[in-house]
TrEMBL record:
Gene3D superfamilies: Ribosomal RNA adenine dimethylase-like, domain 2, Vaccinia Virus protein VP39. It holds the Pfam family RrnaAD. SUPFAM superfamilies: S-adenosyl-L-methionine-dependent methyltransferases (SSF53335). Keywords: Cytoplasm, Methyltransferase, RNA-binding, rRNA processing, S-adenosyl-L-methionine, Transferase. Belongs to the class I-like SAM-binding methyltransferase superfamily. rRNA adenine N(6)-methyltransferase family. InterPro entries: KsgA/Erm, rRNA_Ade_diMease-like_C, rRNA_Ade_methylase_Trfase_N, rRNA_adenine_dimethylase, SAM-dependent_MTases_sf. The keyword Endoplasmic reticulum does not apply. GO terms for cellular component: cytosol. This is Ribosomal RNA small subunit methyltransferase A. GO terms for molecular function: RNA binding; rRNA (adenine-N6,N6-)-dimethyltransferase activity.
């Protein structure tokens, strides 16, 4: 199927950039590793390039898919394309409102080429879902994807937050000329795989606040954010910078502070 993206003018306010290379779409679907019984959520269905490949996969794999799209211009096109697919549901919605309410007892997988300007809020929302997905495959800005995949000694607030709950892999680049309209930066493919050992009882609001406290001054030593006594008791060198701790050490420090009545807000 050929997708005539020229018929539609990209909505700059929504950060729309359409993927042009069908081979990249195939790679994203392959990385998602959809199996029978899965539930797949696509973020930003757009003109249906990824959605079509999900639909094709339904010919030999029994799964359910939700194609989310906020731009009302695309909804009639998407509905017409997939009218015969009884397990593919097109939803006109804001992903930041839809994901927090979604629940399923089946294995959940998420796919999407994200608007670069809203990558962080969407990833935060995915981590906070009632049912955390098994696999997430996203197209993001190259620099953001690489940063999310880094760990100590180059940790960041967002990489620590996400890696506490997911194994993160930066799969590869997507040159900017593979999008229309062409953005000012290259894209990249990010693969998140749910950690089997991730704590499901964590108060994410408190953990976020704790990490924000730790990374508020990322170039300064940790003893500027926490007392030397608390750091030493947790086995952490107070002269280290926040970027020197990986997600497991940050989470262990969070648990230590909780257990010692730090009063985390």
């Amino acid at each position: 199927m050929i997708y005539n993206y020229l018929v539609y003018e990209a909505n700059k306010s929504l950060g729309q950039n359409f993927l042009l290379d069908p081979m990249i779409a195939e790679k994203l679907i392959d990385l998602l590793n959809v199996a029978s019984g899965d539930v797949v959520v696509e973020i930003g269905a757009g003109l249906g390039a990824l959605t079509q490949r999900l639909a094709d996969k339904m010919d030999y794999t029994d799964f359910t898919a939700y194609a989310l799209e906020i731009d009302s211009r695309f909804i009639p096109k998407l509905q017409a394309m997939f009218v015969t697919r009884q397990k593919l549901f097109v939803e006109e919605t804001d992903v930041l409102k839809w994901l927090p309410e979604f629940e399923t007892e089946k294995p959940l997988k998420i796919l999407g080429a994200l608007p670069f300007y809203i990558t962080s809020p969407i990833i935060h929302t995915i981590v906070k879902m009632k049912v955390r997905p098994q696999t997430v495959v996203l197209v993001v800005q190259k620099e953001v994807g690489q940063k999310l995949a880094r760990s100590a000694p180059d940790s960041s607030y967002l990489s620590v937050f996400v890696q506490t709950f997911f194994n993160v892999e930066y799969v590869g680049d997507i040159p900017r000329d593979q999008f229309d309209p062409k953005p000012n930066v290259d894209g990249g493919i990010l693969l998140l795989t749910k950690r089997a050992d991730a704590d499901s009882t964590t108060d994410l609001r408190k953990y976020e606040g704790f990490l924000h406290r730790g990374f508020a001054n990322p170039r300064k030593m940790l003893n500027k954010a926490f007392s030397k006594e608390d750091l030493t008791n947790a086995g952490i060198d107070p002269t280290l910078r926040p970027e020197a701790l990986d997600c497991d050490r940050w989470f262990a420090f969070y648990r230590h502070m909780q257990s010692h009545g730090d009063g985390l807000q």
